Amino acid sequence: MRADSTAALNVLLVDADAASRRQLRRLLLTLPEAARARVDEAADAQQALHRLAAGDVDLLLLDTALPGVDGLQLAAELQRRRAPGRELPAAVFVTASAAHALAAFELGALDYLLKPPSRARLRRMVARVAALAALASAAAEPAPDAPGGPELSVRERGALTRVALADVLYFSADHKYTLLRTLHQRHLIDTALDELERRHRERFVRAHRAALVARDALVALHRAERGWTLRLRGIDDVLPVARRRLAALRALLR
């Protein structure tokens, strides 16, 4: 999910009923927070997957009752197709029955609304999307004036704390989140690996499509039964290395 204003949200409505899509679109666009949202529509899972493949969808509003592949199956398929380090759009079910709420939340749904949603209920949902986007933005926002150098914001038992970027040994993709590993701790953050690499390229190098490692933490490369692995200072974690990353890592270890 992008971390900019909800006014610039890219929304995809997935519902077999055209009238329901029109009603939800109109209601969504009456919200001040989403007045400038770009809204696309899909009538079934196949159309939705085609649109989602193009990227740039921030919010997915979907019904459970779709022809063929239903909404729950679509959400599961998106999880299955998710590439390491890539964020999925926030998924919110808008449906006529509460029967599938538990299954929806188990699939990572952000919210579950019953048709027809009230304007107030829809606005609360959009506020949750905005809060999640703000957290994703703050999760890897450096603090340039910090005495010890740049820091990352992480959630620890519900509180927002700071981790010095210099203490991070590696980041790795972990389902919907990114694992941040220091010498003694692990944290989950919402920022994708690609974004972390873009922001902190001078400190971290890609070892694998699912892992960024600190340049100053590299210790050794080892030949394993199925490829190469990487050891880092101070920890026993063994990270896989992509073959095409070997040359760059060897150069850093010289």
UniProtKB/TrEMBL annotation:
GO terms for molecular function: phosphorelay response regulator activity; transcription cis-regulatory region binding. One of its GO terms (biological process) is regulation of DNA-templated transcription. Gene3D superfamilies: 3.40.50.2300, LytTr DNA-binding domain. InterPro entries: CheY-like_superfamily, LytTR_DNA-bd_dom, Sig_transdc_resp-reg_receiver, WalR-like. Keywords: DNA-binding. The keyword tRNA processing does not apply. GO terms for cellular component: cytosol; protein-DNA complex. Residues 10-130 form the Response regulatory domain. Residues 152-254 form the HTH LytTR-type domain. PROSITE patterns: HTH_LYTTR, RESPONSE_REGULATORY. This is Transcriptional regulatory protein YpdB. It comes from mine drainage metagenome. The lineage of its organism: unclassified sequences, metagenomes, ecological metagenomes. The gene is ypdB_5.
